[in-house]
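Homework help thread (please don't just give me the answer)

Our assignment gives two proteins as sequence + structure token strings and asks us to describe the second one. The first is just a warm-up. Here they are:
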Amino acid sequence: VVGLSWAPVRGSRQSSTGNGSQAVRSMQDADTREVSMPASAGRRATECKGCPPKCCSGGCRGHARTSNRRNVVAFEGLDPLATFGITLEWSTDTCFATTGEPFGVPGYGPHSGPAIETPRASENRRNFIVVYAGRSNFRSNADSFCEGLRTDNMLGVYHSKIERPRKLNFAIRGTLTLNILSAKYTFHDFRLGQGHRVLTNNWWMASSSCHNYKGKALSCQSEE
């Protein structure tokens, strides 16, 4: 079992790592009909076009006068890892968003883009997750994010205490895999959510394998 730690940086839009581990950085920048995806072995029930929580593959147009945002969370390490020493993979189990808000790449048809992706940027980075969703804080998103966890299993950027989110714009749960140089770290039932803090949108992380250290860092153990 391998332990990793995340620690948020105060006063900036990113969190830095402790002990040479990873960091998390947030960059702020439907049609409700369900379309089933082709059946295949191992396909999750939420792999369909429609709205959360039933479908997590996009295609949710949302109500009129709502805005779809490209929400990005990046995992970075201290030098020499920095940006290019880390790549990640993400597999979604469940997702939650405020009713009426869009979820998925605009277009919202059967062949439109996903709601959650790990794209490879032009500079060949692959250390971030993008969630295409609206931003509307709602309590049920936070409740779903926290379900089955203790308060000390989670950490919010810009929060210096051990506490849980009251409201979130959206939340996703799944398997996070970090590839750091030649090592691989897998975290099941890992949770990411976006809330709102003063004048910015902040990210939350949680897992039953994580422990919040005095509101300063989140230490997580992988399955390896």
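The one we have to describe:
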Amino acid sequence: AVTAGEYLMAFGLFGFAGGATNWIAIVMLFDEIPGVFGSGIIPKQFKGIRKTMKDMIMDTFFEPSFLSKQLRKKFGPYSSPEGVEQKLRSILADDEFNARLERKMDALQGKPAGLLLKTMGLGGDTLKSLVKDFIAKLADDISPHLSAIVSEKAANPPVNAIVREVDRLMEERLQELTPNKVKTMVEDVLRVHLSWLVVWGSLFGGVLGIISNAVGY
């Protein structure tokens, strides 16, 4: 009869073999082992990995039709005179704009032009109010022209030029990825998942050892 000790021995031996085999396979992915054909596949294929990464990004995020659609959405709120006017008026009410205007007003007070305006009763809040009113009225006049320009850009966004520039920048950046950098990058992403391969290899190996022992092998 097979004793519990023999089952335990089979579980341990087969489990160790399964875990060790998976661990060696993982090591062979990232490191070249002298005399072992096929080892170090990731650093050896770093150019292919770089190209695959680039192609995946260019074919998804920077695919021309997708990019064109996204640009149209971005330009959408400004493609009508009302949208442009609303945006300009919202800027006038923005705290950051008002703070910048205050700084400009303060700087103007110490200049001859500012002193002249002050003597004319156009200093401080009065001048600020006049400037904002002028911009608001100007918004009414320029909104149709700005919306026409934006609509033209939205209808024919320079997608191909954008794609070419992104492609060029990515190519330059990818050239900096050496075999070791590619290896480290892939290893950082897969380390946790690959560790589980060792655990499951040990577990399944142990189970197979028990089964083999039970059927008499």
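TA reply:
I won't write it for you, but here's a hint about the kind of observation we're looking for: The chain has ten helices and no strands.
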